[in-house]
Amino acid sequence: MSARPPEVRSTCPYCGVGCGVLLSAGEAGLAVRGDPDHPANLGRLCSKGTNLGETVDLEGRLLHPLYKGARIDWDTALQTVADTFRTTIAEHGPDSVAFYVSGQLLTEDYYLANKLMKGFIGSGNIDTNSRLCMASTVAGHKRAFGTDTVPGTYADLELADLVVLTGSNLAWCHPVLYQRIVAAKAARPNMKIVVIDPRRTATCDGADLHLALKPGSDVALFNGLLVAIADQGARDASFADRVDGFEAALAAARAGDLTVTGIAPALMQQFFDLWIATEKVVTVFSQGVNQSASGSDKVNAILNCHLATGRIGRPGMGPFSVTGQPNAMGGREVGGLANTLACHMDIENPDHRQALRQFWDAPIMPERAGLKAVEMFQAVASGQIKALWIMHTNPAVTMPDADAVKAAIAGCDFVVCSDITTQTDTARLADMVLPATAWGEKSGTVTNSDRTISRQRAALPTPGEARPDWAQLAEVGRRMGWHAAFDFATPAEIFREYAALSGIAGGFGLDFDISGLAGLSDTAYDALTPTRWPVSAQKTGGRFFGDGRFFTPSGRAQMLALTHRAPVARLQPRYPLRLNTGRIRDQWHTMTRTAKSPRLSAHLAEPFLELHPSDATARGITPSALVEVTTPHGRAILRALITDRVQPGEVFAPMHWTGENAPSARIDALIAPITDPVSGQPESKAAAARIAPF
Ligand code: SF4
């Protein structure tokens, strides 16, 4: 009998729950099971994690660099990238180039990309697909807390007596976290779950209450809750001196109109009463809140209610954002957004800029934010951006106005794409395609939604000539002339520098401080077990804000005066329906990996449109017929799924399918490039559309 191969501890590459996995590669392929010792999942896995072993074959893998479709060697490829970026910058300035990166990158990759662009090229033009995912939460956290801090931990969701899931189909998009909540409710039947979502999703199946609010009306709803908190005398007097802005926030809330929510008054009152009567309440929010032209305000409307009641940073209570990607949090921490610096330092703060410049011994540092994702691709289209490096993301499919983005990339002077395949809409447009190591082959760290840093480790050999992203970035940095700053031989070396830098942020009194990990030996880095930040001499793991100390200049939290704003995309006679977009249970992003799994593809095999029976009848649309969906920006052909899970006047379509597998179902081609003025996050869930039989 052959010996069982040793298991490698790693994490799942999909959602921000960040489940631990145990991998063993053998003749039968890659076996995957949940890691019983990882605090995020305690051995559980969802369907996507369970079927990871079906996704690691090399069919379609990019195994060597390509330049204009022809194979070239690494030396020529990297020299061409370095030379082209250097000459473009010399001729047109640092803001003529950009990086568009991804929450699929490991922290070490992300850190080097940010260092190269902000500290050495000297532009803020690095943004990430997390702009489409979490930017509104970042903005909301910073406005209220002074820093982008998730106050609580996953354990709070199990300790709560009430979990409110708003703008989150947690059962499909963060399944293991949902399983943990459902298990907690089974053990304590008095625990309540409320879902706030225009759709009756799978998440509602385990809920006590579902509030089907009108798309975009979250601010009005939580303003209503704030008024009820005040009127029922539920404000926490002992926390009042830790919070500024209560009166102004309340006055703005009183001026609001609850009817815009479309929720029956009695049902809404039931929710308000339950929330107020339950001290241990966690409000979980995700893309339904973030992906909106008023996403930042929605986040702050939720935070307002927790701050007014002091229900934050204590066991079983607090606002809780869940991130979409495996390392969206890591990207936020390294400064992967165009308007942030590494370790939660601020680009507008001259002291932070100076400290970072000194630490990196950097020649230059941008004094203002770079272009956020939507602006970045508009600048590519206008010719302002002339050289673009895209890493592990597929903006030709996922950006709003995706057809325009696709045309912009096609027209750009020089596009580099680091990916694991050329079979994406974006990679096919690139001049240079660099083969990157994939999940299962690469090694580094990620941070999940509750601030836990975990190792991803390699269990598979590196195929062909693939190289890790950090190695590609370091080599380009050296070839651009910055030898010492990019002289890294391992991800452990990068992590140590990053951890040391975070001590400077800690010295400014910021939240993100992992300086306690700066001295990790290579062996200790290899063996690092899941660790929640901060990790410093002052503070380790745990919750933030229970002590009433925030990271604002005053040390107090800031409540905001907020007013409901309807979605910017207006309904009109020609486009009378509200188009919502989102994920399905068994696919991930643009399906590069999940489409390889027959079991995952069996769940929902083709793109579809959920529509209400009344809307179907009015247009003569029958079950499973093809439907044409049209917005001012594009058109898609989808299979009709007639269901009362959506409200009359509202339709829903998943965002996963691409030009590679369903050219007529590129949903983000239908979405307008409308963004939140604070966060720059697109309004991806409230397009104005019409439908007709195809
Ligand atoms: Fe992976 Fe998320 Fe599923 Fe966990 S819940 S196994 S992290 S997709």
Automatic annotation (TrEMBL):
GO terms for biological process: cellular respiration; nitrate assimilation. The chain holds residues 1 to 694 of 875 of the full protein. It comes from Pseudooceanicola spongiae. One of its GO terms (molecular function) is 4 iron, 4 sulfur cluster binding. Keywords: 4Fe-4S, Iron, Iron-sulfur, Metal-binding, Molybdenum, Nitrate assimilation, Oxidoreductase. This is Molybdopterin-dependent oxidoreductase. Its cofactor is Mo-bis(molybdopterin guanine dinucleotide); [4Fe-4S] cluster. GO terms for cellular component: membrane; oxidoreductase complex. Residues 5-60 form the 4Fe-4S Mo/W bis-MGD-type domain. Belongs to the prokaryotic molybdopterin-containing oxidoreductase family. NasA/NapA/NarB subfamily.
